[in-house]
């Protein structure tokens, strides 16, 4: 799933290539992906792009006339950029393409989604707060106001495992499964640690790891075309999706915990005092 650093990379790429360009084509190929009907999708045709912004994992193309084209790539969605938009006809239901947008210089992009479970979402709204997922977002972890004390306040009193809390978009916007693994590894913290139980030193470590991990990933993503972002993300991972490999910090074997529809990775030596986490949702540390 694209997370904040990759989405930020996409936003910067789109800002550079679409600002000032007029939309000449807006074709929905997967009706289920379009979550709004007023304004209609064709209301954006003829409007010029004023800016591109990121809200958590949402991409927002701000258009003239007060409209916003917003999309969330979900688990299996991606953006495919074309310097020259293909002339081929999209056949609804027979293509991975969910949306095609074209601009007045001949360029454009497709939003695609692999797999059978379709979650990619597209919105056309007059106000960004009209997108329910954006209205519920917590603070941006790289925002100017997100300091160590802000994080400590978010953790206070929450009897929630820190892994789940980092992924909760209503608490902190933009972090998903991959970067929560990376942040917790950098912070030398168990995924099952309770947020409310973290002491001051642990909060310090978590904050430093969160900011550094995300800032480094954003820097890596910036300037890369969409086609290169996924590989850049994979190369930068220390533990996520590296089960069975050696931890780059201590050399221990990276382990996984599997749930029904997801998994996460961690290093026992760096994060759990050498103990291995059992492979079930309500696990405690194995003794």
From TrEMBL:
**Catalysed reactions listed for this entry:** Hydrolysis of DNA containing ring-opened 7-methylguanine residues, releasing 2,6-diamino-4-hydroxy-5-(N-methyl)formamidopyrimidine
Q: FPG-type domain: which residues?
A: 238-272
Q: Give the Pfam families listed for this entry.
A: Fapy_DNA_glyco, H2TH
> For this chain's UniProt record, which GO biological process terms are given?
base-excision repair
Which residue range or ranges hold the Formamidopyrimidine-DNA glycosylase catalytic domain? Answer: 2-110
Gene Ontology MF: a single term: lyase activity
Q: Which UniProt keywords apply?
A: DNA damage, DNA repair, DNA-binding, Glycosidase, Hydrolase, Lyase, Metal-binding, Multifunctional enzyme, Zinc, Zinc-finger
The keyword Amino-acid biosynthesis appears for this protein: no
Provide the family line.
Belongs to the FPG family.
PANTHER family, A to Z: FORMAMIDOPYRIMIDINE-DNA GLYCOSYLASE
| Record's protein name | Formamidopyrimidine-DNA glycosylase
Species in which this protein is naturally found: Microbacterium barkeri
């Amino acid at each position: 799933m694209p997370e904040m650093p990759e989405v930020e990379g996409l936003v910067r790429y789109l800002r550079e290539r679409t600002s000032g360009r007029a939309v000449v084509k807006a074709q929905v190929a997967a009706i289920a992906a379009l979550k709004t009907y007023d304004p209609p999708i064709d209301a954006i045709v003829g409007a010029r792009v004023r800016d591109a912004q990121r809200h958590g994992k949402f991409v927002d193309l701000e258009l003239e006339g007060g409209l916003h084209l917003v999309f969330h790539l979900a688990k299996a969605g991606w953006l495919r950029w074309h310097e020259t938009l293909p002339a081929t006809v999209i056949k609804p239901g027979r293509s991975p393409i969910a949306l095609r947008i074209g601009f007045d210089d001949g360029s454009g992009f497709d939003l695609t989604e692999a797999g059978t479970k379709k979650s990619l979402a597209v919105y056309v709204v007059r106000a960004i707060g009209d997108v329910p997922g954006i209205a519920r977002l917590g603070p941006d972890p790289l925002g100017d106001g997100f300091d160590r004390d802000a994080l400590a306040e978010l953790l206070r009193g929450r009897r929630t495992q820190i892994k789940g809390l980092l992924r909760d978009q209503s608490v902190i916007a933009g972090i998903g499964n991959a970067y929560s693994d990376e942040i917790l590894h950098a912070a030398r913290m168990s995924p099952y640690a309770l947020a409310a139980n973290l002491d001051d030193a642990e909060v310090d470590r978590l904050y430093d790891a969160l900011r550094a991990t995300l800032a480094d990933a954003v820097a890596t993503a910036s300037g890369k075309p969409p086609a290169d972002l996924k590989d850049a993300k994979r190369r930068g991972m220390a533990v996520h999706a590296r089960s069975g490999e050696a931890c780059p910090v201590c050399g221990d074997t990276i382990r996984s915990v599997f749930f029904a529809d997801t998994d996460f990775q961690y290093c026992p030596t760096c994060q759990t005092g050498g103990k291995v986490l059992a492979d079930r949702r309500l696990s405690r540390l194995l003794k």
